[in-house]
Amino acid sequence: MSTTSRITAAALAAAVGMTTLAACGGSGGGSADAKTVTLVSHDSFAVSKSVLAAFEKESGYKVNFVKGGDAGKAVNQAILSKDNPQGDVFFGIDNTLLSRGLNEGLFTPYKAKGLDNVPAALQLDKDRHRVTPLDYGDICVNYDRAYFAKHKLAPPTTLDDLTKPQYKNLLVTENSATSSPGLAFQLATIAKYGNAGWQNYWKKLKANGVEVVDGWEQAYNDRFSGSAAGAGKGDKPLVVSYASSPPAEVLGKKPAPKEAPTGVATGTCFRQIEFGGLLKGAKNEKGGKALLDFLLSKQFQEDEPLKMFVNPARKDAKVPTLFTKYGTKIDKPTTLPPETITKNREQWIKQWSSLVLK
User: Burial letters for 180-192: b for 16+ Cβ neighbours within 10 Å, e otherwise?
Assistant: First the structure.
C-alpha cells in the first residue's frame, strides 16, 4: 500500500525500528548478468533476509535492488527510463498511478504463478496481466488516543466529522501532488462527495485549519502527536496514514498493550492496491518472471505484513497476530475505477492545489 508513496506503510515500519534493504547495485540498464535479476521499487520495499535468501538459493538468481524514492518518483523515473529500463521487475505502482504506467507501456504481460489465489477485485488488469497485484492497504485518518482521552473528545469517524468545529486545527495531511497517501485521501473525498461536491468539502476542511505537508514521513513522524518515532513532538492528533499504522506503533513493545496508542477513523478510508510488473525491455526477462512468481508466492506474501505493513494479495496467505490484533479491518473503503482516475487525476490535482495551497 502505497502509498505508496505510501509513501508507503513500510516507511512507518522503518520509523519504529524495522529494517529495510538498502538499494544496491547499478542505477540503470537492467541485469547485465544472466544470474542477476534487478528489482526496481520505491524506498519502502522490504523483505526478510531469510525469505530473500531462500528465493536466491532455489532460483539461482541474485537479486539486485534499485530504489527510487517514494512511489510517485519511482514511477516517474521508470517512465523516463523506459527505453533503457533500470531493471527487470518494478514493484510499487498502485491503483492511483497504475494508468500512467500502463499508458506509457512500461510492462510486458506475464501471468504470475499463484494468481488464481488472488481475489478478482484486486486484479485490475486481469484481461492482459501487464501487472500483478501484490498487496493492498487502506489510506485513512489516524488519531492519537491519548490526546482525545485527555481532552475528553470523541475522535472523528467520518470525512464529514473532520469539518466540525471541535476538530479545528487538528488534522495534517499530505500534498496530493507529491504524495501517494495525500492523493489517495483526495480521491477518498472525490469518491464520497463526487465531482460536484469534493471541492466544497476541501473549502470546509481548509477553513477548519487542515495543515498540508509534502509527504508521509513529515506528516506522521514530525507533525502527528501519536508517532513513537516523533516522540510526541508533533501537535496534530489527526494524520492521514494507514489502517495498518497502529500495529507498527505496538511492534516491539513489552509488555504488549491491550490496544494500539493510535486508532483509525474507519469512515475516511481509500483502498490502495499495489502491483508489480515485468519491465518491457528487461535484460533478464526469464529472471524477472521468476522474481514476479516469488513476489506472489505464499512465502513472500506472508512476509509482507510485518515488513511493509500491508495486506497480502493472496487470500490463502496467513497474516501475523500482531497485524490482525492491532490493525483495523476496513470493510467498506471508498474506491474509484482506474479509468476514472486516469481521465481526471491531473485535473483533480491542479484543482486541489489551486484550492488548498493558495
Answer: bbbbbbbbbbbbb
Average pLDDT (149-161) is 98
- Residue 338, classed as helix, strand or coil, is helix
Nearest to 42 by CA among 76, 100, 92: 92
pLDDT score at 16: 35
| Residue 100 confidence (pLDDT) | 87
Report the distance separating Cα 182 and Cα 6, nearest Å: 9
DSSP 23: P
Please tell me the distance from the alpha carbon of residue 257 to that of residue 3, in angstroms, as a whole number: 27
Nearest to 125 by CA among 106, 142, 140, 111: 111
How far apart (Å, rounded) are the C-alpha atoms in residues 280 and 109?
9
Distance of CA 215 to the CA centre of its chain: 12
pLDDT tens-digit series, residues 198-254:
999 999 999 999 999 988 889 999 999 999 876 768 999 999 999 999 999 998 888
pLDDT at 10: 39
pLDDT of res. 232: 67
Q: What sign results for the dihedral spanned by CA atoms 260, 270, 100, 103?
A: positive
- In single-letter form, the type of residue at position 351 comes to Q
The DSSP H or E segment spanning 269 is strand 262-279
Q: Which residues contact 58 (CB under 8 A, 6 or more apart)?
A: none
Strand partners, 326: none
